[in-house]
C-alpha cells in the first residue's frame, strides 16, 4: 500500500532546509558536469572534520538520531529517497537540536555526486529492501554496482555495517562483498542471541524481533582500490 502524501509536505521540507544536503544530477540521462561547489565539505556543513558516517535508506531517521546522540564527536549524513518518509526524521532532528546530523534526499546510485573519494569512515545499511525477484537483483544495495560506489566514497579500511531480517539478501550480500574484495567480520546469523553489545534497534528490527525472526548482521571492510 502506497503511503499517503503528508500534509503540506513541500512547505515542511522547505522549513527543514537548514538540516538538508542536496545530491546533484540524480538522473541517469543527465549529462551536466558535476558542480564542485555542491560536493560535501565537512567544515562548511558541520564546522569540523570529525569522522563521517553515512546511512543509506534511513527511513524516518530513528537509528541515525539515536546513534548521533550517543556519539557527538562523529558526524552523520542519513540518505533517504522518499520525501514522505524523510520529513519525519528531519523534523525530529530540528526538535532535538543535534548538530552532528544532516539528512539528504537522494539515491544510493548517485552517492558519489555528493561525496568525494574517501570522504566517509563508515556506512550503514539497515534493513534495505531485499528485492526478492532475481530480475531486480541489481537494485539490492549490496549488488556489485553499489559496492563499487561505496568503495570510492569510503576510506580504505572503512567498514560497511549491514543488518537485515532477510536470509536470502544476507547470503547475496556475503557473495557480493566477497567477490568485490571486502573482508567480512563479526558475522552473526542471530544478532540478538550473539551477545553483541551496543546494538541500536531500528523500527523494522523491533517489529521483526517481536515476531521471533532472527536478525542477520555483518561488517565488511573496504579494501580500497
What would you call the shape?
Answer: globular
Tell me the count of domains. Answer: 2
Low-confidence stretches: none
| Radius of gyration computed on alpha carbons | 17 Å
In short:
By secondary structure, the chain is of the alpha/beta class. The chain is built from 7 helices and 8 strands; from the N terminus they run H-E-H-E-H-E-H-E-E-H-E-H-E-H-E.
Give a structural overview:
The structure is a single chain. This protein is α/β, with parallel strands linked by helices and 225 residues long. It is 29% helix and 22% strand. The chain contains seven helices and eight strands.
Summarize the SSE layout with pairings.
Blueprint: H1 9-15, E1 20-22, H2 42-46, E2 52-56, H3 62-70, E3 75-80, H4 83-96, E4 101-105, E5 120-126, H5 144-153, E6 154-164, H6 167-179, E7 183-188, H7 203-210, E8 216-221
Which keywords apply here?
about 220 residues, alpha/beta, Rossmann fold, 2 domains, 8-stranded mixed β-sheet, 8 strands
